[in-house]
TrEMBL record:
The lineage of its organism: Bacteria, Bacillati, Bacillota, Bacilli, Bacillales. It comes from Metabacillus halosaccharovorans. Its cofactor is FMN. Belongs to the nitroreductase family. Keywords: Flavoprotein, FMN, NAD, NADP, Oxidoreductase. It holds the Pfam family Nitroreductase. This is Nitroreductase.
Amino acid sequence: MKILETIHSRRNIKNFKSDSIDKELLNKWLQAGTMAPNHKMTEPWEVLVIGEETRAKLNHKADFFDAPVVLAVLSKHGATEIETYENLITTACFVQNFNLAAWEEGVGTFWSSVGNAQKNREILGVSEEYDVVGVIGVGYPEEINAPKDRKPIQEKIKYLP
């Protein structure tokens, strides 16, 4: 797939097959995540692979749509408020790189903010020096939803003098 095709075709998956995900492929896509823009090379991300016991405790109404793999992606706080903000942004780019790399190979993701809830932070063992950028279900799609309409970018561009 070409990058624009990958970007335009990617969807949040809400119905996964039970097929397992090869660990080497998962690591390959996570490694692609590390190529995200990364101010001062802080590499603030950490990835938790969530096992069945922990997953069962998380408060997610759809249990991540039965995805065979569930990850939590964390962003380490920086030395300053600005660095913490930059770390969050680069970690979000890490997640997007991961999502696109997986999608290009036919594997879908569902990105949830459920990890931000204090109860879920405790279940995941996340300390106060980290933010939870997302909990992500990963697996082969059972079905792919149609794209949702987006506003034309022209409506969102402002030209400054």
